[in-house]
Specification:
The complex is a heterodimer of chains A (271) and B (366). Chain A is α/β, with parallel strands linked by helices and 271 residues long. Chain A has 9 helices and 11 strands. In chain A, α3 packs parallel to α4 and α5 packs parallel to α6. The longest helix of chain A is centred in the middle third of the chain and has 16 residues. Chain A: Its cofactor is [4Fe-4S] cluster.
Chain lengths: 271, 366
């Protein structure tokens, strides 16, 4: 399968690889992956997104790329460009399904095989950043992705949580996973951090408060910021629009931009 | 470079590993060796074990974070409010076991006895099992591949001494993978009543939930219905409603109409839910008048309890209190929560076994 020594291959032109992880489902990994990619693009970077959530591939819809076909070239699969300027490219199992409602009912070994292919056989070309969106958990997909990406020295992982203890409880385990697999943690993002009522501006902590920052402190990793609940953000993702471009005054914009800025300032690790 | 075989004959079929679609599949050699043809003896053992369990309900969603564990826990709480109903809650989310925290049982450990593993009892009539009880620290990660997760699920179903149970509720992780295939496979001979599928209103959730529904059809798992969670938010200050997770494609209602599946109900967002879950208490008791509580109770009383064998029929009785004669003709025995002796070591490594709790909640349900 893959060589023990890093075979540059299709990742040779990729400068930085970032994994977006969480032990918990539904905290906003795909949201953060998408918005981070868009923010980096607006900072002038060429970005790729690799969606390794095989059972629930959310990214195509978030970038209005659902139903697009994947073509092959000499180097492998051609990723789908989501914009005319070809600054954001995407690969997801979503593109390989015959029908959008088709379930990918696979056990671990089959998932591992596809993830290895996604890492090795997608012709990304020259990219400043490759953002890897993952499903929740600490299982096959995560191990496969980390093993396949390890020879390419990822920049690190962004770990996403919501403020509540139930979420933090799972995400602690994800941080252990990072430690055990030698994956550097760029930082923790707390998503769904309060909701400002659009009618009266009262802020309600719908999913409790404080958990993300506390978690970062406990684990000794940087806290990258809190992203509030923002119906404009949710709607943008539903409709596959560019939130960063269209809603610069919306509550979540500032937090997302700050996170992207911190990523831009994160230096590559010395090997 | 291969694409994944779409026409997989199934690992148990005679064509497994031998069909044209199998070429290049990483499982091909395993299937061709015939390993998939021999039925796992555990299936029969689990069938025997499940004879004392009257109703089995799976709580599923393709999507993460929609409220499966929250719903499972509160379904268990609500059913167990009737002291004569024996309830078992099984958490098969191996990587992200939320149930111990939500049920206020963090730090509890599992004991072994001659008759198997004992679940952790929250009440005399409410037993819980989760991999969370087998971990010695909240930071421990369960970094297991599929086969090991499957083994754990097999043990949970075969080796836990559930006793006489009216309702076994199985909380699952998001997705359509090992855990889901395993629980359906291992319970194949024991007959699952059906699945409750949880979603939130937005399309990003629904697109995953449709896959889950497709999974249910594929494995012939009956669908009891869909619950739409986080369905609207009422500001506690100005009382105006906002759609934090907007139903841009019609929400669960449109999806259910489309796929001809019952919509069991909609539950609004309530910040108290998260708080109660974080603190391990029943939200139904903490906030009895919340619209979310009323929605939960309506769903549970009207659509899930008591649960009849006919999936599409709405149960005749709406009241939670009168359970009527149990289906098998045997009355549920009062079950002692105490583990006989302390013969076996605790199932987790390290740590000393803690006392199994037996406590009652103050006051009645409503």
């Amino acid at each position: 399968m893959e060589a023990a020594v890093a075979e540059p291959g299709n990742l040779a032109g990729v400068r930085h690889i970032i994994l977006v992880l969480s032990g918990k489902g539904g905290v906003g990994k795909s949201t953060i992956s998408t918005e981070l990619a868009l923010a980096l693009r607006h900072a002038g970077k060429k970005v790729g997104i690799l969606d390794v959530d095989l059972c629930g591939p959310s990214i195509p819809r978030m970038l209005q790329a659902q139903g697009r076909a994947v073509h092959q070239c000499d180097g492998g699969w051609v990723p789908v460009f989501v914009d005319q300027e070809q600054t954001v490219s995407l690969m997801s199992v979503g593109f390989l399904l015959e029908k959008p409602d088709e379930a990918v009912v696979w056990r671990g070994p089959k998932k591992n095989a596809l993830i290895k292919q996604f890492v090795a056989d997608v012709a990304w070309g020259q990219l400043d950043y490759l953002v890897v969106d993952t499903p929740p958990g600490t299982s096959d997909e995560h191990m496969a992705a980390v093993e396949a990406l390890r020879p390419h020295s990822p920049l690190g992982a962004i770990v996403v949580t919501t403020p509540q203890a139930v979420s933090v409880g799972d995400v602690r385990r994800e941080l252990t996973f990072c430690k055990k697999t030698g994956l550097r943690v760029i930082g923790v993002v707390e998503n769904m951090s309060g909701f400002v009522c659009p009618h009266c501006a009262e802020c309600t902590n719908v999913f409790s408060r404080g958990g993300g920052e506390e978690l970062a402190r406990h684990a000794g990793v940087p806290f990258l910021g809190s992203v509030p609940l923002d119906p404009k953000l949710t709607r943008s993702l539903e409709e596959g629009r560019d939130f960063i471009q269209e809603f610069p005054h919306s509550p979540a914009f500032h937090a997302l931009s700050a996170i992207a800025q911190k990523v831009l300032e994160t230096p590559a690790q010395l090997s | 470079m291969e694409e994944t075989p779409h026409n997989c004959p199934g690992t148990g079929s005679a064509q497994a590993g031998r069909g044209a679609a199998c070429q290049g599949c990483p499982n091909q050699r395993l299937c061709a060796s015939g390993a998939g043809e021999t039925p796992d003896p555990a299936i029969e053992e689990i069938k025997e074990k499940m004879k004392t369990v009257k109703h089995k309900i799976l709580v599923l969603s393709g999507k993460g974070g929609v409220g499966k564990s929250t719903f499972s826990a509160h379904l268990a709480h609500a059913l167990a409010e009737d002291e004569n109903t024996q309830v078992a809650l099984l958490d098969i989310d191996i990587c992200g076991p939320s149930i111990p925290k939500i049920m206020g049982l963090e730090g509890e450990q599992v004991h072994q006895s001659g008759s198997g593993w004992s679940p952790v009892f929250l009440e005399d009539n409410l037993g819980v099992m989760s991999v969370g009880f087998l971990l010695s620290s909240p930071d421990d990660a369960v970094i297991w591949r599929g086969p090991k997760k499957n083994g754990m699920i097999k043990q949970f179903l075969r080796d836990v001494d559930w006793g006489e149970v009216d309702y076994l509720i199985v909380d699952t992780p998001p997705g359509t993978s090992d855990e889901h295939l395993s629980v359906v496979q291992y319970l194949a001979a024991a007959r699952i009543d059906g699945a409750v599928i949880i979603t939130t209103p937005q399309e990003v959730s629904l697109q995953d939930v449709r896959k889950e529904i497709s999974f249910c059809h594929k494995v012939k798992l009956p669908i009891i219905g869909v619950v739409e969670n986080m369905s609207g938010f009422v500001c506690p200050k100005c009382k105006k409603e906002s759609q934090i997770f907007p139903p841009t494609t019609g929400g669960a209602e449109a999806m259910c109409q489309d796929l001809k599946i019952p919509l069991l109900g909609k539950v609004p967002l309530d910040p108290h839910i998260g708080k109660s879950c974080d603190e391990g208490r029943s939200f139904l008791i903490d906030a009895p008048n919340s619209p979310a509580t009323l929605a939960y109770r309506s769903i549970i009383q009207m659509r899930l309890a008591p649960y009849s064998k006919n999936v599409s029929a709405v149960p005749a009785r709406a009241s939670l209190r009168s359970n009527g004669p149990p289906a098998s003709g045997q009355s549920p025995s009062g079950r002692s929560p105490r583990v006989p002796g302390a013969a076996g070591a605790a199932a987790s490594e390290g740590g000393s076994p803690s006392q199994t709790r037996s406590r009652r909640r103050g006051g009645g349900a409503q």
